[in-house]
Amino acid sequence: MQGTKRAQRTQRTRRRFTLLLAVALSAVLTMLTVAPAGAAGKPSRSKGSSNRVIFVHGHAPFGKHDCTKEFSAARKHFANKKWKGNLLTFGYYTNNKKCSKNVSGSRDTAIKDVAKKFANHVSKNYTEKGIKVDVVAHSMGGLVVRAALHYTHKRAAGFPKKLYIEDVVTLGTPHAGITKSRVTLCGKARQCKDMKPGSAFLKALPSKMPSTTKNGNMSTDWTTISSYNDQTVTEASGVAGSASHEVQYKAGINHGELITTVSGKHNGRIKHSGKWSKFSKRVSPVEQARLAVYDHVKS
């Protein structure tokens, strides 16, 4: 009799253990399957300085940049203004130095191909993990970002399915092409041809900056900045293609200085809701860029 009771207790203990093991195994399987790779939720737009900022350089006449040197003033300014997120750089020439991320390429690499590499970098390292980023791009770098978002939204071959880029600021970007004198100086490299006014590359881009939430993309707020003293990109080309915010500086700031001028008051104007303000003293281009990626909440 006692042996029978002992056997029954042993069986009940085994059943409880088996049940507990099954519950534990089910919980583990649930944790592994609830959020598979690439399924992180889309973040919401927000105001603040917590986003990672990726600085993207422009065309290089000799096919190389020192990313740390290129964006030294801008990154230092952001840091001095207590920016909390990482301040990163993206480069696309094989001979570049000191970039947070650098991909292979030359002046003969089509801008669309650079855009594909940039889009996939952002997707793999940030979007797929549910992380949003901001972008500040100088010169041709703005075309790289513009094409990256446009072709991602179109689900073009080789581009990722979606991108979480919250804000983009372009400084001296040839949205309608570089000046005639720079076309001659630039030469016959593919990137020079892509930046020529009326090129097939530029014609393929829509006039409105890509900001759609279609296909799971995050809405992107755009600010374009140009200068009347820019000999590479005219004041009109720098803000060509409608953006949510457009800024122009009257004089005193050349093409390179758009990404290095961090202080002082400068004669400029801004367009909101399709209307230009009067020229008045405004913050520097780099400070304008920082305010743009910090403050623009709505698309």
Outline of the structure:
Strands 1, 2, 3, 4, 5, 6, 7, 8, 9 and 10 form a ten-stranded mixed sheet that branches. Helices cover 34% and strands 16% of the residues. The longest helix has 33 residues, at 2-34.
Series of secondary-structure elements, N-terminal to C-terminal: HEHHEEHEHEHHHEEEEEH
Count of extended strands: 10
Fraction in helix = 25-40%
Distance between the ends: 78 Å
> In what range is the share of β-strand residues?
15-25%
| CATH architecture field | 3-Layer(aba) Sandwich
Radius of gyration: 25 Å
- Tell me the number of helical segments per DSSP (H or I, 4 or more residues long): 9
CATH homologous superfamily descriptor = Alpha/Beta hydrolase fold, catalytic domain
Structural class: alpha/beta
Domain DUF676: 53-184
Organism: Streptomyces cyaneofuscatus
Signal peptide: 1-39
Protein name: Lipase
Question: How are the secondary structure elements laid out?
Answer:
Layout: H1 2-34, E1 52-56, H2 67-70, H3 72-80, E2 87-91, E3 101-102, H4 111-125, E4 133-138, H5 140-153, E5 165-171, H6 180-186, H7 190-194, H8 200-204, E6 221-227, E7 245-249, E8 266-272, E9 275-276, E10 280-282, H9 285-295
Parallel strand pairs: 1-2, 1-4, 2-3, 4-5, 5-6, 6-7
Antiparallel strand pairs: 7-8, 8-9, 8-10
Domain DUF676: 53-184
Protein name: Lipase
Signal peptide: 1-39
Describe the structure.
By secondary structure, the chain is of the alpha/beta class. The chain has 9 helices and 10 strands. Strands 1, 2, 3, 4, 5, 6, 7, 8, 9 and 10 form a 10-stranded mixed sheet that branches. The radius of gyration is 25 Å and the shape is globular. It starts with a helix and ends with a helix. About 4% of the residues have low confidence. This is Lipase. It comes from Streptomyces cyaneofuscatus. Keywords: Signal. Pfam families: DUF676.
